[in-house]
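Study this:
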Amino acid sequence: MIELTDEMNRPSPDAVFGRNSVLEALRSGRPADSLLVASGERNGSVGQIIALCRDRGVTVKEVSPAKLDHLAGGGNHQGVVLMCAAREYADVDDIFALAERRGEAPFILLLDEVEDPHNLGAIIRTAEATGVHGIIIPKRRSASLTSAVAKSSSGALEYMPVARVSNLASTAEELKKRGVWLYGADMQGTDFKKQDFSGGVALIIGSEGRGISRLMREKCDFTVSIPMKGRVNSLNAAVAAGILMAEISSRR
């Protein structure tokens, strides 16, 4: 018989739980991804915790008590779990500032609902190696900067600015106003070898299953594809991003 370990009873390495612990984490300015609150829980200091999160722009989600039990490893979470980030998020302006310091046209990655943390970590690692100035992800329906992402990035997260925005489509419009061209990775696009990537570049990579959303595709100035010669007609999001980032980097 296989003996079960304590693995299932261990709290998530990204979780801070219990009302006092969560309050102190927020007051200290610790980077946070989201606050998970038991459905209907608003008693005592929970309202204060929610208010602090909203002031800091931390997403608040209602979940089942069973979800909190799992994240806390069976510990006394008192109805609240704060999911913390492995690194503080950057601002979009920080990304432009880095490009300016390097004397380069901006090279930015927009991830449209890439939800697998291992894909996000791998993308961060390749982005750092190919000279990307920063990555932009949405607050919702996206992997966040968890310990799993940090591990998958093999240390690259420490050097790669990652900004998290409420509205990716609005941010894409902002990038265009700042002189950056938007290139979407899409199977119906132009062969990436034939595409001009001069000037400021924002490469948009879509989700693992659906690709780029309709709204983000409409924001693109160009769409580019990677020709497939085998029987498999699509690539993992991290692999596709890596091929395109390497190509763009070689042209700069």
Observations:
- The CA atoms of residues 44 and 176 lie 46 Å apart.
